[in-house]
Amino acid sequence: MNEGGKLAGYNTDISGFTKSLAVYDELFRGKSAFIIGAGGAASAAIYSLIVNFHVKRIHLLNRTLQHSAYLAANYSMLFKDVQFEIIPHNDHRVESALSSSGIVINTTSIGMSPNTEQLVDIPFEALNRDSLVYDMIYNPLKTKFLEEAENCGCITVNGLYMLLYQAAEAFKLWTGKQMPVEEVKKLLPQF
Question: CA nearest 91: which of 108, 112, 107, 68?
Answer without folding.
Answer: 68
